[in-house]
Amino acid sequence: MELTIIDNSLHSRLNVIMFKIITPDQYKTIPWKNGSGNTTELAISPGGTLQNFDWRLSIASVNKDGVFSDFSGYDRQLILLRGNGIKLTHNQRHFDDLRSPLSIAAFDGSYQTLGELHKRPIEGFNVMTNQQTCSAQIKTYSQRQNLDIHCGDLVFVYAAYQSLKVQINQHSLCLPAGHLLQIEACAVQVNVVGAGFLVIDLKPFD
């Protein structure tokens, strides 16, 4: 579903709000750069490829210990969705230990990062941003929320475990589990009711 709303109630000028729900059948399966597995690509910046993009959202299962792909020039954020957790060792010096659902690790894509599972495979949500063009602010919510979001240029909401109720100005919708909501707007008010979700605010550099 993709909708465009023209709203003149927020500013003296017209405010154009574009949003769409990206469904699992629209996701793409992409091989890892290191050839050790596949990732499910949910969304990527317009015209982006695996070798060159501004931002990219994906989900991957990690079934064994191993070194992450090299993404020099990109910032990476990994959110644990399912599994017992994973320990990340960056350049043999820095550590992140993800054990709780929706916990986040942020690291430079140029690091040599070793992932070591805590006994069982995991599923992780990956956000990558080009260090020259944009950044991502990510917040996760494991408990039930009635949350107001002040959207910027580009915001995503991912329903990780259960459906969410979303209101964008006067338009209400249901975001099913496993679906991704993309909102392009200027200072629009969004309300989300539910639990177990991510909010990703992508900010382009001037």
From TrEMBL:
The lineage of its organism: Bacteria, Pseudomonadati, Pseudomonadota, Gammaproteobacteria, Lysobacterales. It comes from Marinicella litoralis. InterPro entries: RmlC-like_jellyroll, RmlC_Cupin_sf, Uncharacterised_HutD/Ves. Pfam families: HutD. It comes from the Bacteria. SUPFAM superfamilies: RmlC-like cupins (SSF51182). This is HutD protein.
